[in-house]
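Exam review. A common question shows you a sequence with its structure tokens and asks you to describe the fold in words. Practice with the pair below. Do the first one on your own.
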Amino acid sequence: MKHYPHHIGDSTVRKHGWNTYDYLSGLRGLPNIACCYAVYFDGSLRYIGSTNDLRNRFSGHAFRHSYAKSFITPWGEFDLPLSITIKYSASRRYGDWLMREARLIRRLKPVFNKKLKGRAA
């Protein structure tokens, strides 16, 4: 059995055309595309998901500061300073990014992803 680190490495980024985005710089740089995405807090993989519209997905999440000591996300409260990085990979075909999400969740087992329902994870 191979050991996979909890990180979408440079070889995966090049192979699948992954783009990297710093969330704290604002939402304007996020494209309105259907894609599979991975969320990192301070360089550690926390969540993998897919969406029909990346910018709308993250504008809908309640990211906010809490008394200037922490940052509240849909996945919990984190101490500042915090780095939030989003890696995303777009696809033209509907099923491609959904299957990529399922494969990455099974392989990398991010902290905030629950077991895939109806499939052996």
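Now try the second one, then compare your answer with the model answer below.
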Amino acid sequence: MPVESPTLAAAPVEAVSLKQMSLKQFFIDKLDREAVLIRKTLERVPEGKNDFRPHQRSMTLGYLASLVSGILGWIPLMIDRDELSIDDPSSEGFRTKPQANRAALLSALETGLAAAHASLRATTDQHLLTPWAFKMGGRTIQQQPRSIMIADAVFSHLAHHRGQLTVYLRLVDSTVPALYGPSADEFN
């Protein structure tokens, strides 16, 4: 039976029993929902403000926006590799590369989104339950099943930094998009 979404009343959503949904499908659906929100946020990043930082210890706006645009690209690393060691030169693709402008941010998002989709489609629920490790300085910082790492180190981490980015947007007089509900700029 269709369930009305409170924020999109005109778009009914089919209720799906969790027993019917695979872990893999859960992540694919989550990926698609988050991509819409990331895109809306990145579209508000103003040109020429990449060096803005609200505090001397804060990231610059350009670096933060680049981080947000690239986080979905971490999913293939978590699916296709058993670990990520920051010290290993083969991990260079994991490091955030500052993008020069909004178009480059959106392109990086689309590249990471396509790679994440491909990796998720090619994997299995069983593989998502196997361990994945994050290492630095020869030490294991965190090791959990891939599914937990994707949920925490990608999606929760993304929500944190996207929220941080919306604060930066407000501070540079850009508009803040409605993400999980209305914003002060998009209240209807």
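Model answer, second protein: The longest strand covers residues 139-145. The two ends are 28 Å apart (CA to CA). Full marks require stating both points clearly.
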